[in-house]
Amino acid sequence: MGYHQDAILTQAMTHLRRGAHGHDLLPLAILHGFFFPLPISENPHFREFWEAARIRANELGYYLEEFWMREPGMTPARLRGILKSRGIRGIIFSLPVLTAGNALDFDLEGFCAVNSGACRFFPPIHSVMSHPAQSIGQCVQNLVDRGCRRLGLVPPMEAGGFLNCETEAVFEFLARRAPAVEFAGVFRGEVNDSGFALATWAQANRLDVVIGTPQVLADLRAQGLSVPRDIGFVGLGVSLALDACSGMDRRNAHQASALVDLLVAHLQRNDLGVPPFAKGVMIESVWVDGGTVPATRPPAPRAAASPPVGRRGSVAHQR
Questions:
Q1: DSSP secondary structure of 14-29
Q2: What is the pLDDT of residues 157-216, one digit of tens each?
Q3: Residues 94, 31: contact at Cβ < 8 Å?
Q4: Which of 154, 182, 228, 319 could covalently link to 232 via disulfide, CB atoms 3.0 to 4.6 Å apart?
C-alpha cells in the first residue's frame, strides 16, 4: 500500500508543532531575486503588494517570510533546505527570480508555488498578473473619449514578451477601429538615451498622448517637454499610491491577495510539485486621473484620407 500525505492532517500537525513555539500561524515564503538587498516590505514599489499579501495570509491562518535569492552564498539547494527546515511548503515567486535561461532554477518537489506576473520560465507554474488586453483597451477608449486623436505607445523595456505583444496588438487594432484616431504609432527607437529619440519621435508625429511606463514620463520631462501642456502621458501598470500620473492602475493589492488565495487553495489540496497545467489569474486594471492627460476637446475635422506613414524606429497607423 502506498502512503499519500494528507494535506489537512499535515497542516494540523505543523500548526501544533509551531504552536508549541509560540507561533499560531503557518509559514509561507516570498522569494525574489532583485539585485539589491532591500526587503520587499521596505521597497516603496512593492510595499503595497507585500502589505496586502501579508494581511490576506494572516486572514487565512498564515504568515509570510521573505527570502532574497541573491543573498551571498545562497544556492537553490541551500534555500530548499532552509524552507524545509522551517516547515514552509508554499512559495510565492516575486519577479525577478533567478533562472537558467528560461528554466526555473529551483526544484519544486515537495513545494506548492505560484508566480507574481506572467510565467515566462519552464516549468510553468500558476500565476496572477494584470490583464494586458483589458488595460490597453480601456486606456485607448478613455483617451478617445477625452478627445485625444494622435496616440503613441512605448512598450516596456522587456519588449518581446507575449504580454507586450498582446498590448501592442490590441493597441493597434483598437486605434484602427476608432474613427476619431488620426495616428497610432509604436515607438521602436533607443530607450537608453534619456528620452531624446522618444521626444523627437513624439514631436515629429505631433502626438497628443504617449502611453508607457512611468519612466517614459520622466524621459519626456528630461527633454524639456511640459506634461500635459506640450504632450500628454498615460501610464500602463502604474500604482495609484506611488505614481503621480494618469493611467491604468494595476491594483497591486488585489493581485497580492489573489496570489495568496491561489497558493493556499492548492496547498490545502496538497497540490505539490510542478502542476499538470498552469493556471493564470488576471486582475483587471482601473483608470485613474492624475493630471497628465490634455483637457478634453471636440473631435478634429476629418482630413482627406492618406496612406499609412511609417518612420524608422516606429510602426505607424495614420489617417
A1: HHHHHHTTT--SEEEE
A2: 654 454 567 888 888 888 778 788 888 889 987 766 778 899 999 999 999 999 998 889
A3: yes
A4: 228
Pull the grid cell for residue 103: 528554466
Q: Is 190 helix (H, G, I), strand (E, B) or coil?
A: coil
pTM above 0.90, yes or no: no
Query: Do 50 and 161 share a domain, yes or no?
Result: no
Cα angle vertex 91, ends 85, 95, to 5°?
130
End-to-end CA distance of the chain: 72
Domain match, 227 and 256 both: no
For residues 252 and 187, what is the distance between their CA atoms, to the nearest angstrom? 27
Closest CA to 28 of 259, 255, 252: 259
Question: Does the residue 242 lie in any domain?
Answer: yes
Our count of domains for the chain comes to: 2
Contact 138, 157 (CB under 8 A): no
Q: What is the CATH number of the domain that holds 149?
A: 3.40.50.2300
Task: Please name which of 299, 246, 298, 253 lies closest in space to residue 139, comparing C-alpha atoms.
Answer: 246
* Domain presence at residue 2: no
Q: Are 182 and 199 contained in the same domain?
A: yes
Is 100 inside a domain boundary? yes
* Domain that residue 99 falls in: 7-124+251-284
Q: Other CB atoms closer than 10 Å to residue 61's CB: what's the count?
A: 12
